[in-house]
Amino acid sequence: MPVPTFDREAAALAKGFIVCGIDEAGRGPWAGPVVAAAVVLDPARIPKGLNDSKKLSEARREALFAPIMEQARCGIGIVSAQRIDEINILRATYEAMAEALRHLSPLPTLALVDGNRAPPLPCRAETIVGGDGACLSIAAASIIAKVTRDRLMAALDRDHPGYGFAGHKGYGTAAHADALRRIGPCAEHRKSFAPIRLLLGN
Q: Would you state the pLDDT for residue 202?
């Protein structure tokens, strides 16, 4: 099975770029924020075992979170469900990515972004489809974004009990749909998303 490499970053560093990887978590869920992370890896201190967060167990992601935060420079951007409803999920994702980047100093001059559409950023951006499984910086960003969002959803589960946010993380599971039918949406639900909109009769 292919694993992410540092090849793209090494090539960019050789050209004088300050390079980061950017990824997001939470574009598809019915509830909660979208979270993005931007990570600048230190070539001499890359944590072992980095991979696409979706290919790692929750325990492995949690175990990697602290080493990434300690050994790399990390920025995190969080955009709320309310903001997602205001501007749509694509623009909210871009906003989270730009916020994550702004938390890095010095500011990167090249961002390697997972996906096929580049967000508007204050630096050059290159998209990589499947980047979280191909590029170590993006893999690290995918882990930081996913763990951060999962922890936020666990906290929201305590604030809004009954939906099962800690389990399904806001995604559209059968249990989530059942909870919505029983108790209706809460402030953390994305009212612009079709399943919630239909429930509200909009």
A: 59
